[in-house]
Amino acid sequence: MDIIEMKNIKKDYPLGETIVHALRGVDLSVEEGGFISIIGPSGSGKTTLLNIIGCIDTATEGSVKIADEDITALDDKKLTNIRLFKVGFIFQTFNLIPVLNLLENVEFPLLLMKDKSWSRTDIRARAEKCIDDVGLKDFMEHRPAELSGGQRQRVAIARALVTKPQIVLADEPTANLDSETGANILKLMKHLNETENVTFVFSTHDPDVLQYASQVIKIKDGAIVEKAGSERQSRSRQAKGKSAGRGVKGGSRPKGRI
User: Whole-prediction pTM value?
Assistant: First the structure.
């Protein structure tokens, strides 16, 4: 099943007396459970594409479906609900609230949802689980300024996952991190992608990301110029399924926290 479907997406921005064509007829389908990397030079349209998927921006032309729901003509209230309930965000600059501690930052999206089915105890328990999943159980009372860059990005990942979204979007998630920390963040994201079955779509300049992505989308001048990896992903899933059916040890999930 495709969790994201985009057809003939165009996005134009007025700039003085000229029009900037940020996206030029993009067609994109993302399979549920994918780990998708969008690569391309600065100004190629990567962030614009993510913003449209995440309902932060709207297309000038074309149609977008998220989880089989056409969002093209939805009003602001309905788009806000999609951002809250279906999509999680990981930002390049973390975007944590400095006056809140780690636990409060992760709880915040659940409080915004105002979902009566979530009690205060449920919210606290869910936030604590997400924090534990990213390896920061001992830092819950710390504020963002007391954490390293890698730790802050882990908090951002926990916050993105706390509402149990179907899709997580990440805009250059390793750009402000050193290479070792960036690699650890990618491993963590991949681990959560596999264990939580959450679809990850992220933009990057980092060439090391290719070893983790199930599909790589190359974009240039607002158009997709290359797609790679989807067939490999399907073959890998089939192979894992066969291994699991035979009881082969290699078919089991990785143990331990990354």
Answer: 0.84
